[in-house]
Structures
1.
Amino acid sequence: MHADPPPLAPEEYRRYGRHLTLPEIGEDGQRRLKASTVLVVGAGGLGSPVALYLAAAGVGRITLADFDVVDVTNLQRQVLFGTRDLGREKVVAAADRLRDLNPHVAVEPLAERVSSANVRALVRAADVVVDGSDNFTTRYLVSDACVLEGRPYVYGSIFRFDGQASVFHPPAGPCYRCLFPEPPPDALVPNCAQAGVLGVLPGLVGSIQAAETLKLLLGIGRPLLGRLLLVDALDGGFREVRLRRDPACPACGDAPTIVDAVEHGGAACADGVAGPAVPETTPAELAALIAAGAPPLLVDAREAWEFQAGALPGAVNVPLGDVALRAAEFVGAGDVVVCCRVGPRAARAVEMLRAAGVAGARSLRGGLVAWRDEVDPSQVVA
Amino acid sequence: MKATLVLPSVLRTAVGADRIAVEGQTVGAALDAACAVYPNLRRHVLQETGALRPHVLCLLNGRSLPRTTFADHALADGDEILIHQAISGG
C-alpha cells in the first residue's frame, strides 16, 4: 500500500497506545493507517460511526462526501452531529467534529453529489471505499467505480431493523452486482428514510464497516470477502451468507459489459435527491385553484406519521409504497396533484400514476415545504 | 416436506407475515404455495417468468442458491428458506 509510511508524532504514541500494544497492529500498522486514505460516501447514519471510528483510529486522510445539510430528523441516528449543527452542511459539521476528535487526521469535506463525473477520480485516490449512501443509484455507481479502479468496496446498508454488510473486491471475491445484479423497480423500492430505521442500527452496521476498513488497511484478519453479514436487530441475530463471484456479472464477470461508472437513474430514498421530471403545479397555482373553488384531488405520498402531523385540507394519504397498488382508484379522477415533503416522492408517485393511466397527475413543486414558504406559513410539515 | 419461509423486515409489512409454514418437494414448489396464500409475496420476490427478481436473494439453510436453479433445490423436513433483498438505507 505505502512503502515508507510516515512516522508518528510524539503525541500520537500516547493517543494510539491501545493499538500499539496489539501485536497485529503495533507501530508499523499504526503508520500504515496514518499513510492511508479512505473515501466515505455519505455522512448519514452509516457514515457517522464509520468516519468517527476511522478518525479515532488514526486513518491519515478521510474524504467525506455528502451534499446534504443537517436536519433535526438526522439526530436520532447520525451521531456525528449535534443540535448546534442544524442547518449546516453535513461535511463541514462533520469535519469540525472529526478534527476535534483527532487533529492528526486530514479530513477532506466534499459537499458534492458523487456522480459519474467525479466518482472514478474519488475512488482512485482512496485505498479503501466505504459506502454509507442512502440510494441505489449511488450504490451501483460507487460499486462499479470500485470494480473499474480495483479498490475494495466496504458495503453496508440498513432498513427498519435489517442491516447488511460485506466487502466486495473482485477478483478476490464477488462485487455488489454479483449479489444484486439490478436495483429494484421503483414500485418495490423500500421507502427507506420514511419507513423508519432503528436509531442504533447504523451504529451496528457502520461499526462493522469501520472494522472491515481497518482490517483491509492493515492487512490483518479475515475480511468479509465473499460473505454477506445479515443483521436482524429485532431478532438480536447475525447471519452469515456465503457469496460467490458470478462469472456472468456485467461488472466483474468473465466478459464485463460495464466499462464505465455511470448513474443508472434508479430509485433514491432521501428527500434531497432529485426525482424524475414530471408535470408540476406550483404552490401559487394550487392556491389559485383552491381559491377559485376548483381544487384538484390532492394525494399526499408521505408516510402516515408525516401526514398525521400536518397535511393539506382534503388530501388523501397514499404512501409512496402503496401508490402502485392503489393507482387504479385514481383513474378518471381528473386533475390530481400529488405532494410530499419537498418533491421527489411525489414525482415518483406521479410517474407511477401516469403509467397506470392517471393522465391528470401532477406533482406539487417543492412539496409542502414550498407550500408553507410561499402560500401558508401556518402549514405544519413533519 | 415441511419447511419454513422466513422474510426480512423489509418484506414483512408488504406481505403481512414474517415466518410462513410451507410444504413442497422443492424450493420453487414451497414458494408457490406461500404465494398462493400471500399474493403480494410473488410480486415482491418473483418476476412474471417465475425467475427470482434481480434484487432478491434466496437462501436455503443459510446457503445462497444460484439464481438460475434456485427453484429446483429439493427440500427436507425442517429446512429454512430465507428471502432477502437489496436495501439502500444509509
2.
Amino acid sequence: MKGRFIINKRETCVDFDSRATLLDVLREQGFAEVKKGCGEGLCGSCLVLLGGTLVNSCQVLAATAQNQEITTVQGVGNIHSPHPIQQAFVEAGAVQCGFCTPGMVLATYALLSSGKQPSETEILEALDGNLCRCTGYVKIIDAVKLAAQRMADHD
Amino acid sequence: MYLMRHNEIQWFYPSNLNDVQELLEQPGIYPCAGNTFLLKAGLKKVKGLIYLGDLGLDYFRSDGQRHSVGATLTFNGLVRNLIRISPDSVLIKSLRSAATCPLRNRITVGGSVASFPRWSDLMGPLIALDASLELIGSQQGQVKVTDYLASPQSRKGTLITEINYSPQEWQSSYFRCGRTVNDYSLFNFTILWQINYSGQLEDIRIVLVGTRKKFRRIVEIEDAVRGLPLADCHWENLVNELELSFNQSTFGRANYLEHMARCELVRALSRIGEIPTP
C-alpha cells in the first residue's frame, strides 16, 4: 500500500506492506537511528515521537501512522547541532555502546517537553520503557537532570 | 524489501460509527486503534482492519453523575485526565504500573477491555468500579463489564465505544505481582472500600485478576465484612477460607501463585484501617 508520512518535518510518500510496523518503514527509509531491539515494545530502542507522543515504533502498524508527524532522534538534534539533551548525555557520560541512546534521548525529550522540572520518580516513570545494558542507568538519570536544569535555565 | 507475507490486509479509515458498524459485519475484519494486542496475537487471520483513530473516541468526560471514557483513549491519556479530578482514583494506581511509558501511550482502554489479557491492569479496577460499556455492532447499547465478559456473544462483531463508571469516591488499594516492574503481572488485585464515621466498613469490593477464570470478585469476604467494625474483620481467617485457583505457568507454579495471592491479600486488607478516611 502507499502512504504519506511526515518524518522529521519532511513529507514522504512510501510504498509499504500493509502489515509493516512503523519501525520497518523507518528503517527501510534509511532512518537507522531507530534501532530494532526486542520487537515487543519492551526495550525502547525503537522509540519515536508520533504526533508528539512517545511510542515504540515496533508496536505501531505503519498504516495507523500515516499523515502524522514522526520525529526520530535526528529530528531532535544532530552532531552538528545537538539538542541540550544530547549534549547533556555526552557530558554526563551517559553514552556507552549507544544502542539505547536514541530512545533514551527521545524519552527525555518527551518528558521535558512539558516544561516542568521532573522529580526523580517522574524521570524513572518516563524512562521505564528504556533498557540499557551498559551504563547501570545512574549516569543516564544524571543526564536527564542536567538537561532539565539547562533547559529550565535557557527558558 | 519486506519479507513476503501471507495476504494483504485491507485497511479502512471510517470517519463515523455507522461506517464502522457495516464493516464489523464482515468476517475477518477487526477494529484497530492502539494495535498492541493485535501485534501480540498475530495478524494471520486478519483480512481487514478498521482504524478507529479518526473517530474522536479519545475523550474523557465527567458530568458529576458518571465518568465517560472514550474507547480509544490511551492508558496515559486516562491517567492525565483523572489526576486533575480524582487524584486518588484506583485507575491511576493501576494504569501507572501497567507496561511501560511508551506502551501506555499506545494501549487503549477499549482495546484492553475487548482483549482482556490475563495480566490486565485495567480490568480489576473496572470490575470493582462496576463499569459499563457502550457497544455498537451485533449488540447495541449499554452492558455491564461483567456481563460483557460472561457472554462471548456480546464480544463477537461488536465495538466498544465508551466505558462509563460512577465517580463515587472510594478509598482504594491496588497490588500487582510481577517478577520485575515491567513484566506482565502474574496476578493483581483491586480493593475499594468506604468506612463510615463510626469506623464500620460500609462497603467493600475486592477483585482478583489472573486466576484460572481470569478474574474473581471475592464476594465471600465482601459479604462477611460489610457493616462490621474494622476491628472485627479477621482478614487472615477469611482469606485462608477462600477457594483460589491459578493456572500453572512458566512464570510460577499454581500453588505458589495461590500462596502469594493469599499473603498479599491479607497484607493489603489488614492495611485498610491504616489509611485515613478523608
3.
Amino acid sequence: MTDSPLSLRRRQLLAGGAGAIAGTGLVGLAGEAVAQAAPAAAKSLPAFASWKDANAVIIHNPNELETKRSAFGTSGITATDHLYVRNNVTPPDPSILNDRGGWQVAIEGVRNPRTLTVNELKTIGVETTATVLQCSGNGRAFFPHKPSGAKWTVGASGCVVWSGVPVRYVVETLGGPAAGVHYLTGTGGETFPAGVDPLTVMVERSLPIEAMNDALLAWEINGEPLPLVHGGPLRLVVPGYQGVNNVKYVKRVALTAAESPASIQKTRYRLNAIGTQATPADPSVLGMTVKSFVTSPSGAEPVKAGVVYVTGVAFGGGSPMKRVEVSSDGGRTWIDAQFFGPDLGRFAWRQFAVPLRMAAGNYVLTSRATDAAGHVQPELRSENAAGYANTSWADHAVRVSVA
Amino acid sequence: MPCGCRSPEPGRHPFAGGCRVGAAVAVLALGAAAGAATGGDAQFAEGRALFIGGTTPPCAICHTLKEAGASGAVGPVLDELRPDEERVAAAVRGGIGAMPSFAASLSDAQIRALAHYVAKASGGAR
C-alpha cells in the first residue's frame, strides 16, 4: 500500500490556474436531484446498531441505515459508526460474538475440506485491504419507476479497511481447489426456524472463482473487531464486488461447480428489465463499475458565497482512478478536480477536491470519474427492475444554494 | 495484487492434511405464545388468524408482533416497523427482500385482512 499524502492548498490552486476556478450560476439540471431528507416518521436506531451515530445516518428501517452525504468527511475512511447497514434478514443473536476465536467456518470444494475456527485461520496468514463497500441498491432513490426496496441515495456506501486471512491462502493450505469448481460460494450464519424453506431466506452468494484471488475472511474493520451488524465474528469480503456478495457471519466458504440454489442468488440481485420477473438467465449483481459523487457541499445547508471546496469520492470496483471532473452547472461544463489523501489501493475510493468561486445563486454540483482503463462514469443509469448499480453522474448531482 | 503476509510452507501447515469436523447447526425455536385478540372487528380477527397460522410459512415464524404473541426473528420486528396497510399489502403481494410473494396463495380479501390486522396491531394504521 502506497502512502502518498497530497494536500490541496487553496493558495496553490487559486494562483496555479484560473481554469480551476469556476463560477457560474445554474442553468439547467441534467438529472433529477433528490433531496436527501430523512423519512417523515421519527425512527430510532435498532438495538443491534444502537452505537451508530444517529446524526450521521438516515434510518430507512431497522435493517437499512444510510450514511448521510454530509457525514462522509474527508479522511478517506468511513467511520464505522457512520457506515451504512443493510441486512437481508435480522442479524443472529449477539451471543455469537462471545467467543470470536471459536467461530467456525466450513471450507469445502478443496482437496482437504475441513472446518476451521477463527483462531485457526489466524495461523494461516493475514492481509489488510481497503475496499469500497456499497449496496447494489445504492442510488435506487433516483430510479423514476420507484422500485421496491430502500430508497438509498448516495450513502449505502463507504470505504473501510478490513483485516483477515486471504481466502487463496486458506484454499492453498487445504490442498488447493477440488476438480471441476467454478464458483466461490459463501453462506451466512443466520439460522432459520423450522417451517421456513431456508432457500428462500438464506444469504448464500456465488461469484466467479477468480474472486478468490482478492477475497478475505475478515475479522477486523477500521482497527476494531468486526461488529455483529457488519458481519462479526467473520465476514467474507470480496473486494470490487457489490455489497451483497460480502457474506456476513460466514459459516461456509465453498468452491462449487454450480451457483447457489438460494433465492438470493437465483432470482434476487439480478439485472432484469423493468416490468419483468428476474430469472437465473438475467445478469447477476457482481462487480462494481466506475462511479463518483460529491460529498461536500451536501446540499443540506446553504453555502456562503466565495471560495467553496467541492469534495467527493471516486471508485471503480478494482480499476484505479485516473481522473475526476466536477461540474457546477448540471453537466454543461466540467473542470478537473485533484485527488488528495493517501491512495489506499485499487479497491478503495479516492478523494477528490476542487475549489470553486461561487457567487450567490443555485447550482447543481456533480462529478464524473474516469478509471485507468478509460471507463468514464456514465450520464445515465442502466435501467433495471430492482434499481441496482446506479452510477449515473446526473442522478447523483446535488443541488446547492449559495448565499 | 494486495500484499499479504502468510505462514511459510503451506503444504506443511498442520491443516494441510485434512480432517473433517462437522459444524453444529442451531435451530431457533419458535416462541408462539397466544395473545388475546383486542381489535374487535371481523377483518382484524381474520387477519390475526392468517398471521398466526393461516399462511405458509406463517408470518409469525419470521416476524415479531406482540399482539399476536409472535417472536419470529428473521424479518423486521413489526412493532418497530409499524407499517401502514398499503405497505403490508405491497409486501405480501409482491414480496420484498428475503420475503417471498404470497400473491399465489392468498386471496385479495385475505391480503387486505392481513394488512388491516398488521397495521392496526403494530400501531402503523393511519
4.
Amino acid sequence: MKIMATFFYKLSLYHKLLYIYNMKDRLTNAESLEIISNMINQAKQQIGGSSFQFLMWGWVVLTAYLGHFTLAKIDFNAPYVVWLITIPAAIVSFVYGYRQEKDAKVKTYTSYIYGNTWLAMSIPLVAFIAFGSKVGSHNLTGLILLISGSATFVSGKALKFLPTIYGSFIIWLGGIFALIFNDDNQFLIGALAVTLGYLVPGYLLKMKEKNG
Amino acid sequence: MANFQNLDPLLHSQLRLAVMSILISVESAEFVYLKEKTGATAGNLSVQIDKLSNAEYIEVTKAFKGKKPVTTCKITNTGIQAFEAYINALKSYIH
C-alpha cells in the first residue's frame, strides 16, 4: 500500500515537473507578469489630445466672461452677446473630437468616459442657457460652473490627472461664489475659476502629453 | 503542496499574451497599434491574431478608412474569462 502511494505521489510530481519544464521553454511566470504589466502600462498612456479641448474651451469661456464683465460695465444693453462665440467653439470642438476618434488607432475606456461625460453635461448646460429667464439669468454663471465642475471632475478621474481633479474643486467653488455674489462680479469669479480650474491644468496636461 | 493550475497554452506565449494584455486594457485597437506596442513583425502578429481569433478570444473586424484597409481587434467575453483564468493560474504558481 505504502509503495503504491509513493508511486502515485512520484508520478504526480513527475507530471507537474514535466509540465513546468515544458512551460519553461516558452515563458517563465516572471516574464509573463512583466509582459502583462508592460503592455497594460503602454495602453494606459493614451491621453493624447485631451488638453486641446480644455485649452480651447478655457480660452473661449475666459474671453466670454471678461467680455461680458466689460460690456456690462460700459452699460452695453446686451452684454450677453459675447457668449455667441461659444457656437463656433462648439462646432470646432465637435469636428476635432469626431476626427480624433475617427483617426485613433486605439479606442480607450478613458476617451469613451471623457467624451460621453461632456456630452451628457452639455444637455443641462444648453437647457440652462436656453431657459435662462426661467432659471434667472443672474444665476446662470453659478449653475454653469457647477455643472462644468462635475464634468471636469469625472474627466480628471478618467485621465487620472490630479491637476484637473483639483481644478474641478476650484470650478465648483467658483460656482458657489458666483451664486452668492450674483452681480457683475460673478463674471470675474467665473474668469478666475476657468483660469485656475481649466487653463492651468490644461497646460499641465499638454506638457504631460508632450513628454509622454 | 501548492495546487498548480494549468496555464492556457494559447496565452502562454510572449506575443499572444502581449496582444491580450493590451486588448484587456482598451476598448479596441487597430493592427498597426498592436504592431507598434508589441514590436512584432506584421507576419508574426497576423498569425498570432488569427490563433486568438480562431479560439474566439478576440474579435477581428476588417474595414476601410478612406481607401486604407484597417484591421481592428477587440477582446471577447471568452477572451476576458481566459485571461482571468490565466492570471489566477499564474497566482497559484507564485503563492
